[in-house]
């Protein structure tokens, strides 16, 4: 696997990301508020023996990165479309390099409008609003400014679109590796 090093010294997989995903991650972590959240980190990244962070719980080399849930567009430009949620951080935006790539809604940021994170240790999902977006994200009609735990069938409103959240993993099911 060809690794690329960004200006801040992070190593990342150039085949998968056009820009350093860790720099974005740092920006998102800076946005982490205390509201409604425990002080625990998301345990999103592991550090291997070389001190290099790996982004995914199961990385690509193991060849298995199973779906853990879905977001389905129920209102807006991509109504009817589903988006797979994988383990740990799923960046949302219009850009093709985003894990959850929403093309049709121009009111959604190209990069990092938000993140849906699945924590396989605690088996819960969290929505983290992007730090630089100008619009407000609503979950079940409530404006959110800080990370917020998601429950089945929550309605996430971003830009001019609405999405329903459907978990697969959680208390009832988890992939056995
Ligand atoms: Zn970086």
UniProtKB/TrEMBL annotation:
- Give the matching SUPFAM superfamilies: SMAD/FHA domain (SSF49879)
* Protein name, entry field: FHA domain-containing protein
Which ranges does the record mark as transmembrane? none
InterPro entries per UniProt: FHA_dom (IPR000253), SMAD_FHA_dom_sf (IPR008984)
Where the record annotates domain FHA, the positions are 92-159
Q: Please name the Pfam families in this protein's record.
A: FHA
């Amino acid at each position: 696997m060809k690794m690329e090093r960004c200006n801040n010294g992070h190593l990342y997989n150039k085949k998968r990301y056009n820009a350093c995903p860790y720099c974005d991650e740092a920006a998102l972590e800076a946005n982490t508020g205390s509201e409604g959240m425990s002080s625990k980190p998301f345990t999103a990244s592991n550090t291997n023996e070389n001190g290099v962070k790996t982004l995914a719980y199961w990385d690509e080399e193991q060849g298995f990165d199973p779906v853990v849930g879905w977001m389905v567009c129920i209102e807006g430009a991509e109504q009817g479309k589903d988006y797979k949620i994988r383990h740990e951080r799923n960046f949302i935006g219009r850009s093709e390099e985003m894990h959850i790539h929403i093309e049709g809604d121009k009111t959604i940021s190209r990069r990092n409008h938000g993140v849906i994170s699945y924590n396989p240790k605690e088996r819960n999902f969290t929505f983290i609003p992007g730090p630089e977006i100008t619009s407000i994200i609503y979950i079940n009609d409530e404006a959110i400014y800080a990370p917020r735990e998601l429950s089945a069938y929550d309605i996430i409103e971003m830009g001019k679109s609405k999405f329903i959240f459907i978990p697969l993993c959680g208390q009832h099911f988890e992939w056995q590796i």
